[in-house]
Amino acid sequence: MSKIMNATPSSVAPTSGLEGIAAADTALSQVLGQAGELVIAGTPLHQFVAQQTFDEAIQTLWSIAGSDLTLEAENVAHARALAFENIEKLQPVLKGLSPAEGLRLCLSSLSGSNASDAPVLLVSAMPVFAANVARLADGHALVAPDLKTNTAACFLGMLHNRAPSQGEINALDTYLSTVCDHGMNASTFTARVIASTQADFVSAIVGAYGALTGPLHGGAPEPVLDMLDSIGTADNAAHWIDAELARGERLMGFGHRVYRVRDPRADVLAGALKELGAEGPRYGLARAVERCALETLQRHKPDRVLETNVEFYTALLLDALHIPRAAFTPVFAVGRVAGWTAHCIEQQRIGRLIRPSANYIGTPVKAPQDLSV
Ligand code: ACO
């Protein structure tokens, strides 16, 4: 399990982490932290997810960003086939890498062209790479993509090397739509900074993906399952959680920079689990751990609202779909690449370099002059 210590070294001045600072204008999504509402494409999350599939959601986001790109079947098939050719060639160097590392390598292998169809290439290649790096990490052979199915079916078909059920496809599709965009989160900000330099799309997405992999962002669901395994039974939860917090650790799947109430995505994913009929024994344990964690966190940090975030239910849903836990972050990227590409399109239309300033806290110079480069 990844360990995240609470303490800030005393020599380091506490910084804001840009909390509450608007870094861009966007029409793509809005996170209403106090209300616990996420609005995507002008529609509350519950409705957004119910009204369209993930593949439709991608096009909706691109259209709002100002692009008329669509997921033409022929272009998607071409991009999936190209991605599979790339991963076949990369197979020897992927040996020994985790799925998260493997996906980074595969993404970098795409041509860095700034062509207008780069977003189609990226959203189509992502499931091919994510499913196959997970297979390789588990010692299985590569599986070629179905060139005609939607993203969720294509991913599951490769990962499990069998045709997924409609229930499984629906559950993953709901997950992908739920995480497709989320305001100015760390990875989206990274994508926009890179796009603002007029670097190519692939570079922007590789950078964004790197930001996603950290446990304070998209790397949390794997440790959530580790936590549940480690707790083992509901009556061990209070003792385990107290000990963890006493050691200065954070509980994975709880807390959020913007939400001050429950993350609305958690409820949508809990609904998808129910529809999948996957509320088994692990689900019962998870609900007990969640209740205990919320009570304990309230006592531990009475001045800070620490509620369940999206990653807690992500872990349960992806586990119920038999996705290996080491592949959870790559699967997150399959969904979030929709938002990343849309933000890059939006940023390129704005066309202004993102270049903030910093508070200099180093040794002062005697004759003050502007030494910044
Ligand atoms: N468990 C225990 N304590 C916590 C937790 C947690 N999960 N989250 C925050 N706190 C504590 C912090 O230690 C801090 O205490 P302090 O003031 O005594 O130092 C206080 O609450 C405020 O925390 P910040 O770090 O200022 O909150 P921030 O807004 O930066 O953090 C974050 C948000 C990173 C998500 C945090 O809540 C966290 O680390 N959660 C666990 C990891 C996680 O679930 N990540 C997935 C996030 S969702 C996503 O990105 C898709």
Task: Describe this structure as you would to a colleague.
- With 373 residues, the protein is mainly alpha-helical.
- The protein has helices at 45-51, 54-65, 73-94, 99-108, 118-137, 151-160, 166-178, 186-196, 201-212, 221-231, 237-246, 264-276, 281-300, 310-320, 328-350; strands at residues 29-32, 37-40, 43-44.
- It folds into 2 domains: 29-213 and 329-350, Citrate Synthase, domain 1 (Orthogonal Bundle); 221-320, Cytochrome p450-Terp, domain 2 (Orthogonal Bundle), CATH 1.10.230.
- 55% of the residues lie in helices and 3% in strands.
- The longest helix is centred in the last third of the chain and has 23 residues, at 328-350.
- It starts with 28 loop residues before the first strand and ends in a 23-residue tail after the last helix.
- The structure holds acetyl coenzyme *A.
- Residues 4, 6, 17, 215-218, 220, 250-257, 301, 304, 306, 309-311 line the site of acetyl coenzyme *A.
